Structure formats: structure tokens, C-alpha cells
Amino acid sequence: MPKMTAKYAAAVDAAHNARLNAAGTRNQEELYELLQSAGWFWDSTRKRWDFYPQEEAEPATKMIMVRVWCDSEITEDMADDLTAALRKYANTKGWELVERSRPYPCRPPKQLESRIYLKFLPARRNGHA
Which entry of 29, 39, 59, 127 is 20 to 30 Å from 50 by CA? Predict the structure, then answer.
């Protein structure tokens, strides 16, 4: 039996109200995928599933964004190690690190953890991305 979180309870209600056949879903992730494929998306701030009618999609970002999230005592070291490894790989693939955030502490109960965001873009060649 899946854990009855606020998200899952709201998903069960949303699927029922939208008349989606959720009987075949075996777990929370399958139910969430069913809702999303029908245009329903979770709003974690308001703790509810909202429907978004299909519309023309915006172009996808060219940026690759990586979140390093771990114990605050090692977040900067892990970001350094990952940055070095990603730079080595990314440079061979034509990507460059364009931004690295400061560490952001997580709010309780995760206050012993923090996050650093890394952003990569295609390397500029001859003035073109």
C-alpha cells in the first residue's frame, strides 16, 4: 500500500474527479504519470493537482542544470569534484560551465544539507552558441 502523502491523496482525488482510469496503476509514480499525461501537474506550494490545457510548447532550454544536494559539510567539495569531472567531459562535448551558485542551506528538517546549482551552456565558437 502506498504511503498516503498529501500529494498521493490529492492524486487519487484528482484522478477520480477527472474520470481517469487509475485502476491499473500499481504505485504512486504510475498514478502521477497518468495524471501528467492527462495534463494534471502537482503544485507543491498549494498542495493540489492543477489542470493545464495543452498549448504550443516553448523551445527547450539549451542549458544543462545540475543540482548538487548533500550534507552541508561536503557540499562545496562535492560540487568541486563534480564540476571538475563535468568540465572534463563537457569540454570534449562542447559545453562550458557558465554559473555556479553559492551553497543554499535547506530548510528544516533538512537543515544539515545544502544545495549548489551548476549551469552549463554550449561553448561559443566564432561568436555562435
Answer: 59
Looking at residues 39-54, what average pLDDT do you find?
Answer: 94
**Which amino acid is it at 25?**
T
Can you tell me which residue has the cell 498549494?
Answer: 46
Compute CA distances 7 → 4, 57, 60, whole Å: 8, 26, 27
Q: 34 Cβ partners below 8 Å, 6+ apart?
A: 15, 20, 22, 25
Largest Cα separation within the chain, whole Å, is: 57
Which cell numbers in the block locate residue 31?
498514478
| Contact (Cβ atoms closer than 8 angstroms) between residue 123 and residue 96 | yes
Average pLDDT over residues 43-56: 94
Distance CA 37, CA 31 (A): 10
Q: Is the dihedral of CA 68, 69, 70, 71 positive or negative?
A: positive
DSSP-assigned states of every residue in 43-80: ETTTTEEEE----PPPPPPS-EEEEEEEETTTHHHHHH
Q: What mean pLDDT is predicted for residues 86-108? A: 88
